[in-house]
Design brief:
The complex is a heterodimer. Chain A is α/β, with parallel strands linked by helices. Helices cover 38% and strands 26% of the residues of chain A. Chain A contains 9 helices and 10 strands. Chain B has a single domain (39-263), classed as MetI-like (MetI-like fold), CATH 1.10.3720. Chain B is flat, with a radius of gyration of 24 Å. Chain B has helices spanning 2-26, 30-37, 40-48, 58-88, 95-110, 113-126, 137-162, 166-174, 179-209, 221-232, 236-269. Classes of the chains: A alpha/beta, B mainly alpha.
Chain lengths: 243, 273
C-alpha cells in the first residue's frame, strides 16, 4: 500500500520547547489511524502540521508523492485535499448550517451552488440534520454542531480527514453521536487520522493505534497490540492512567 | 406597584423639567436671552428664508449637511475598511503599507478636525498644484471629513476583526479558502456585526461635524445661522440649526441603542451550547 500522506522525521519547535521530535508516520488509503497520548504530547500539533496550518522546522510532509515543504506549494490547494475538524467545532456563526457546509465547495472549489446544495443536503440527511439546514449553528447542541463540522469537511471530498479531539469539548451524553458518525465513516473507507482520548472508540475503529509521548512516537500497532500487550513502559503507564 | 411607580416617575420628571424652565425664566437677564435665542418671528424667517433681505432658509441650507454626510459616510465606510485591512494584512510585501496605515490612523485621530479642515481647505488650493488645487470648497470639506473619519472607522473595523476568534480563521483556511475569501466570507461579516453600534456612533459625530465646514465659506445650516446673527443681531438661527441636527441625530441615536440592546439579548440567549 502506498501512503496517501506521510510525515517524515518531522520536527517542530515553539520557542525553546520542541513539540514534535522527529515524527515519521504513513497513512495509507482507507486507513484509520488513532493517535493517543497525554495532553501536550504533540497530537494536535502534528495534525496541524500535516495540513500546513503550522510550518515545520525539519523533516518533510509528503502528500501522494509530492513534498509539501516545497515553497512553490500553495497551502490553500493542499488544504482542499487534507481537511481538519477541530475540538471547538469552529462553525461559522453568521451562516446557516447549510451555508456552513456549502462555503468550501462553492468558494474554494468554485463549484455551482445548485450542485453543491444537493450534495450538502445529502450529507445533512445522513446525520439527520437536513430539517435544520436553514437554522444557525448556535441553535444546535454541541454534538449536532460537531457533526455539522465533520460534514462541512466531508463536503470538500478530502483525500484525508484529520480529527483533532473532536469529542473533548462535548458533554458526555453527546459524545456517542459523534463517535457513531466517525465509525460510520471508517466503515465507508474514509482515510482518517484521529487524535482522541476515547480508548474504546480507538480500539473498535482503528486499523492502527499510534502512541505519542513527549513529541515522539513511542509505539504503534494494531489496537489489540497496543491496548492488550503494550511493549513500552510509557504506553502501559499512560493506558493505566486513562482506564 | 407598577402604577404607583409610573405616577412617581412622571411626577418627579415633571418637577425637574419645571424647575429647569423656572430657572431660565426667572434668570435676571432671562427675557433678553429668550429674545436673542428663541424669538418666534426670527425662528420663522430662519426656517423659510427671506430673499428680499438676503436671508438664507436654514432648512434649505441643511440639505447641504445631509447630502455631505451621506456621501462622506459611504466613502468613509470604504476607505476605513481599506485602512483596517492593510493594517491587519500579513503579506510581507505589504509591510510598508501596514506601517503607513498605522501612522495614518494615529495622526488623523490625533488632530482636531477643524485644523485638518484649514490645512486641506486653504493649504491645497494655496499649493497651486493644478487640478487638485482648483476644486470647490465643498470638495475640500468632504475630503477633510473622509480623511479624518476614515481613521476612526478603520480602528472600529480593526477592533471588530480582532474580535473574531482565531478558530474561525483556522476553519476557513482548512476549507482551502484564500486570504481574501477568508476575509470576505468569514471575518468581515462577523466583524461588521460586532461593530455596528460603534460605527453608528461615529456616524452621529460625522453628521454633527458637517457643521464645521462653514469655516471654508460653505453655506450650510450653521453658517446660515451665523449670517443671520450677523445681519439681524439675533441668534435664533443657531436654535433652528440645533433643532434640525437633533431631528437627524436622535433617530440615529435611538436606533443605535436599539441595536446595542438587541445584540446583548442575542448574546445572552446564545450563551448556552
Amino acid at each position: 500500500m502506498s501512503a496517501v500522506i506521510s510525515a517524515q522525521n518531522v520536527r517542530k519547535r515553539f520557542g525553546d520547547h520542541e513539540v514534535l521530535r522527529g515524527i515519521s508516520l504513513d497513512l495509507a488509503e482507507h486507513e484509520v489511524v488513532c493517535l493517543i497520548g497525554a495532553s501536550g504530547s504533540g497530537k494536535s500539533t502534528l495534525l496541524r502540521c500535516l495540513n500546513l496550518l503550522e510550518t515545520i522546522d525539519e523533516g518533510d510532509i509528503v502528500f501522494r508523492g509530492q513534498s509539501l515543504t516545497d515553497a512553490r506549494i500553495d497551502p490553500n490547494l493542499v488544504r482542499r485535499h487534507i481537511s481538519i475538524v477541530f475540538q471547538a467545532f469552529n462553525l461559522f456563526p453568521h451562516l446557516s448550517v447549510l451555508d456552513n457546509v456549502m462555503l468550501g465547495p462553492v468558494r474554494a472549489l468554485g463549484r455551482s451552488r445548485d450542485e453543491v446544495k444537493v450534495e450538502a443536503m445529502e450529507l445533512l440527511e445522513r446525520i439527520g440534520l437536513a430539517p435544520r439546514a436553514l437554522e444557525f449553528p448556535d441553535r444546535l447542541s454541541g454534538g449536532q454542531q460537531q457533526r455539522v463540522a465533520i460534514v462541512r469537511s466531508l463536503a470538500m471530498k478530502p483525500d484525508v480527514l484529520l480529527l483533532d479531539e473532536v469529542t473533548s469539548a462535548l458533554d458526555p451524553t453527546l459524545v456517542g453521536e459523534v463517535l457513531d458518525l466517525l465509525t460510520d465513516l471508517a466503515r465507508g473507507g474514509t482515510t482518517m487520522l484521529i487524535a482522541t482520548h476515547e480508548m474504546n472508540f480507538a480500539r473498535n475503529v482503528a486499523d492502527r493505534v499510534v502512541f505519542l509521548h513527549n513529541g515522539e512516537i513511542v509505539e504503534s500497532g494494531t489496537p489489540s497490540q497496543i491496548f492488550d500487550q503494550p511493549r513500552e513502559a510509557a504506553t502501559a503507564a499512560f493506558l493505566s492512567r486513562v482506564n | 406597584m407598577g402604577r404607583r411607580a409610573a405616577v412617581a416617575s412622571s411626577l418627579s420628571s415633571a418637577i425637574i423639567v419645571g424647575l429647569i424652565i423656572w430657572f431660565f425664566w426667572r434668570a435676571p437677564n432671562g427675557a433678553n436671552v429668550r429674545h436673542f435665542f428663541l424669538d418666534p418671528h426670527s425662528f420663522w424667517i430662519n426656517l423659510t428664508g427671506d430673499p428680499s433681505r438676503s436671508l438664507y432658509s436654514i432648512l434649505r441650507c441643511f440639505e447641504t449637511n445631509v447630502w455631505m454626510f451621506m456621501l462622506c459616510e459611504a466613502l468613509v465606510l470604504i476607505f476605513g475598511l481599506g485602512l483596517a485591512w492593510l493594517r491587519l494584512s500579513r503579506t510581507p510585501i505589504l509591510a510598508p503599507l501596514r506601517v503607513a496605515s498605522a501612522i495614518y490612523t494615529d495622526v488623523f485621530r490625533g488632530i482636531p478636525i477643524i485644523l485638518v479642515l484649514f490645512a486641506v481647505g486653504y493649504g491645497v488650493p494655496g499649493m497651486q498644484a493644478g487640478w487638485i488645487s482648483q476644486r470647490t470648497p465643498i470638495t475640500y470639506a468632504c475630503a477633510t471629513l473622509v480623511i479624518t473619519y476614515s481613521a476612526y472607522v478603520a480602528e472600529v473595523y480593526r477592533a471588530g476583526m480582532n474580535s473574531v476568534p482565531n478558530g474561525q480563521v483556522m476553519a476557513a483556511r482548512s476549507l482551502g479558502l484564500s486570504d481574501v475569501q477568508t476575509m470576505r466570507r468569514v471575518i468581515l461579516p462577523q466583524a461588521v456585526r460586532n461593530v455596528v453600534p460603534p460605527l453608528l456612533n461615529d456616524f452621529i459625530s460625522l453628521q454633527k461635524d458637517t457643521a464645521l465646514v462653514g469655516t471654508l465659506g460653505i453655506v450650510e445650516a450653521n453658517q446660515a445661522a451665523h449670517v443671520f446673527g450677523a445681519m439681524e443681531f439675533n441668534y435664533t438661527g443657531y436654535t433652528v440649526a440645533a433643532l434640525l441636527f437633533l431631528a437627524l441625530t436622535i433617530p440615529m441615536t435611538r436606533y443605535t441603542d436599539h441595536l446595542i440592546a438587541k445584540d446583548r439579548r442575542r448574546r445572552l440567549a446564545g450563551g448556552t451550547v
